[in-house]
Amino acid sequence: MADSQSSSGPATAPTAQNPGTGYTPGDDAWTQWRNIFAILTGKMTDEGKEQFRVARDIRNEAADCKSCEGHRDYLLQYSPVIRFLSDNIRQLGGDLSSHNIYCRRCTKRKAGGFDPEYGILLCANELKDRGHLEDTLAHEMVHAYDHLRFKVDWTADLRHAACTEIRASSLSGECRWAREFFRRGQWKFTQQHQECVRRRAILSVRARPACKDEAHAERVVNEVWDSCFRDTRPFDEIYR
Prior knowledge:
This protein is mainly α. It contains nine helices and three strands, in the order ααααβββααααα. It is found in: Mitochondrion inner membrane.
């Protein structure tokens, strides 16, 4: 579990505002409102906003993780897509359940991750609701399926990384039209799914150490696009 801050005794008076960022440290209600007002009025820098988010995540860590674990357990039992992926992973000799799907506070701005040795990480402080968690968990379970089915090279072969990212974004539901339209401000009505999958795959490949730059990431994604986007295994087609 990630480190968390604790406090005891009555709330103290808020400390002075950081003149460089506009962020005021403190957990009391007045300080929280002061920071929110600074954000709404444009008086807080991006650095200050990040400090505010980190403090909020630490303060809410226990509640976020408890909520995440409740959603995780519900989806493992009742979600058709999660149960389907879990069954197919089990048929390949894998095992993903509550014992190796972890809810934790993350310090990087991502929703989750997959590690072949440890399992799946769900970033409790970044997940907005059960639907968001379901898409994230499905994404990471596609990675787990690919690892078992196709023996993915996660470190050296960017083509492998690009292919599994294309498949995970396409099959998980995170690129469905409603999510793109209402949450990400992507308002196109044609080719929306493909553009979302391509964009997210390029971003993921770009973040890998072996990738030189964005042009390199885009080139690798384009090289594997046709075969990997058409490959919907273990599904018959793109359902979500």
